[in-house]
Write a structure and sequence with these properties.
heterotrimer, A: 385 residues, abc type-2 transporter like fold, B: 390 residues, alpha/beta, 16 helices, 8% strand, elongated
Chain lengths: 385, 390, 314
Amino acid sequence: MKALAIALTNLKRFFRDRTNVFFVFILPIGLILLIGSTMGNAGTSSFGVYPGAAPGAVADRIVAGLEERGFSVEGYGSAEDVRLAVERGEVTAGVAVPDDLDARLAAGDTADIAFYATPNGQGAQLQSVVDTAAVAASETVAAVRFAVSRGADRGTAEGVVTAAAAAAPTLTVTTSTVGEELFEGATTYEVGSAGELILFMFITGLAGSAELIETRRLGISRRMLGTPTSAGTVLAGEALGRLVIILMQAVYIVVASALLFQVDWGNLLATGAVVLLFALVAAGASMLFGTLFSTPQQSSGAGIIVALALAALGGAMLPIELFSPTLREIAKVTPHFWAVDAFSEVLRRGGGLADILPQLGVLAAFAVVLITVAAWRMRAVIARG
Amino acid sequence: MNAVLTIAAKDIRQRLRDRSVFIIAILAPLALAFVFNLVFGGVLGGNVQLSVGVVDADEGPVSDGFAGLVDSLEAAGLLDPTSYPDAAAARAAVDDEDVGAAFVLPEGLSARVRSGQSATMEVIGNVDASTTAAIASAIAERFAASVRIGALSAATALGAGVLAPDELEAAAAEAGMAPPPVAVTAVETDTRQLTGSTYYSAGLAIFFIFFIAGLAITSMLGERSGGTLPRLIAAPIPRYAVLAGKALASILVSLGAMAVLVIGTTLLIGADWGNPFGVAILVVCAVLAVTAIMNAIGSFARSAEQGANLQSVVGIVMAMLGGSFIPISLGNPVLAAVARLTPNAWFLDGLAELQAGNVADVLPYAGVLLLMAVVWTAIGLPFMRRAVAA
Amino acid sequence: MASDRILDAVGLRKRFGDREAVNDVSFHVAPGETYGLLGPNGAGKTTTISIVTGLLAADAGTVAVAGQPMTPTALAPRRDVGLVPQDLAIYPDLSARENLKFFGRLYGLSGGTLEARAAEVLDVIGLADRARDRAKTYSGGMKRRLNIGIALLHRPKLLILDEPTVGVDPQSRNAILEAVERLSGAGTAVLYTTHYMEEAERLCDRIGIIDQGRLMAEGTKGELVRGIGGRDQLTVRGTGSLEAGAAALRALPGVESAGVADGTIQAAVVNAGQVLPQALAVLTEAGLSVTAANVEEPGLEHVFLALTGKALRD
């Protein structure tokens, strides 16, 4: 079949360029690894703490109180260091305990703990946490002072307070959670892999549109049209070539991520269907792109930009669940949204082929439209040379 | 020197006529920064105000006390409270994400506390917003701690003989609201981080500059394939002039592009690059470093096309590792260390420090970038000399 | 005197790997002279040119331009050389004017002088009305003309053209040859490499025949031809007994052979220039009325063949 021959030539030329190997095979896995390991650390709140030069009992209890509430605590050597760590975002918020905390309390004074948080971050809300820890750590001191303020003898009060503390009722806070876990059972790698797969398939497609221009520039397309080969076959050959490369990369990413990062791609039939249809969309977009520009540099440069932009808008980079409602609607204009949606269904909710028919339908429609428009334009452009 | 300037001028003229420079160095980063900011903008910033639901089934002094706490937090801009009739309604609200979390004060709470018994209050959180739930819990616990302090103080006073039993409740309320001996004072901080639109603008700018910084060596290889190299070598100009002129051209073009990007992102998407002097220092040093790296990389290649490909690979890898696309995870020591090898990381960190407003803070980062420029120039020099030979 | 010479190359050697590209080549170009390096592809012409223009360092030997030693780093001798490389050395995305002004500056021209010279060259090469268009819009011939023009801008003492007519259409080729003739007529020394015998014969005062890196022979065409023992061809038309005329010619010293063919007398003569007057006298004596006498030197083809055993053109 002539179309196959054209496709094979395309493939051969593609792999002759070794940087293509980098972009198709090494880069995607590298990026998945990078994002997966980075995302793992996001979302945990941490405190930077300077506990004072020689922390006394109260100071220690304050720091312990932070840890008990489930926050990770990083120690620093001075208040200034804590502040810088907060400013640089190394920790979410910071606490600096004065060196003389316990001494001041013993002397009957009040003491101030410094709290650091950046003006526009989540840190500010953590002040309550520090407040609570401080209050809890100094409860006996407060109780004694109150009694003394009512006229009690200090020694008597101190004698009574320990027993009173043991007997005092506690208002316990219980927590319960509602809602479906957003990324239930999904590792950070799984959350990202589907999106990155989509991203790369499209990048490979659009960046590869440069190939079509090269072929055009070398006059090969026109030569092919001159042979007893119908324009349709030439177009089919070009499309097939692009499709094969995109599919090959997709299969590679699915297999590699499954092996290296234990990503579970769910129902293989369903996953395969999404991959195949999206590959068609990407191939169609690639062909169309190739007809819009006149030099390979312009085409691949613009192609990468558009691919990145569409991936971002369509929810392939940041999970769509984190989008604002308006953006969520805009995302539906991109084929990426539908592919990611289908993958969510398959990967996170264990769906099968039947569950993703609507999304597959939309993808098929995208593919048909893109390929038709591309074919129409290609015919005109190639004939014109 | 004249020859260097002449060659630089010619190269710049050729660059400006090549539309792909505009696409790569200006259009691409601006467009992508715009899109990224649009899509990701809200996420990096983070919300300050927490919306919460409150169910008061107690309607007693304890729940009044809690209401007082909520009011003061609302006044401080930290909470946005809504009342709900019962726990089921509040639960539904949290599930629907109408509120971030909800507090439930059960019926009979005040009675139990008054009679000295332990009691509970509930915080309802959403499984996907663990930090929000933790903060709500913290608020509830703050309240619980003050209730306990009240009871403990009253009990201590009672035990010390200065309080009558019928004064207990009033004393508990008073003690509970008293300022604690250890107060927490928020200290004003600067920020030394890049956020939102600034981060994307800076990260993408330094990424795309990689692609035009390497033009010196690829244009040198282009002179060879274009046939003009022999003429240049036959001309009465010093040997170094050709490469020096091209390096100068690519540096000037890069600086120009960066200037356009800084101004463009500031105007179009509200990026805040910081003090102009600090920005200028960092930009110049970063451009020098990136130029040195790209030209060294390109000089290892034998043809302009091979050089461009190698440069693409290096540009993308450095951008990924150096935090141009996503912030480097400081928690992962390996990644953080590797990032230190890229100019991207030092450029972005320098800009982050500059957000605190002190120009001097960028000097160490600028210094490292200059060092990179020197080291990579040394690495590349022998290969670049070979490229100039016929 | 050696210092009178515009170009003096002595004992040049250059080896690439185990191949001797240039093997003990020595020649010189006198002021105002056109010297041709004639040889087939791969003979070492371009390598020699590269050494002469300072692009390459020779393994051994010296080159001096107007008495100034030429090395890869020497600046002074470069000022006196104008190079027209075999491959087009122009910037397609710059206009002719921009190309000229750029290279002019590299040769130290500036300001009013540069403008004037550029305008002058544009006129000479006939690109004045397309001077502002980008070179990539020019026809092949126009690009070639620009290629030459750039080399003329700084009025070099020595113009070097490396196979300037390869792959060029006949019209442009003729234009190039005429241009070179004019330049040498105006007193510029020219070093011209080619593998086209006709060009060498037409343009060059002296020719060096080079093959496989060695300079096989050099001299004027006449000298070369005589060097291989070639004979001039004398062709005579006339009325009367051609046979008698041929016989009479045969008797002359310097005439190797003479015969009648195609209604003319054909004789092989050593140094026709000297023999011609005697030949005419003898023919008239033999009763021939000479209407036309033509002398033709044997071609360089024969010279090359004799020297190398190969044809000049494969």
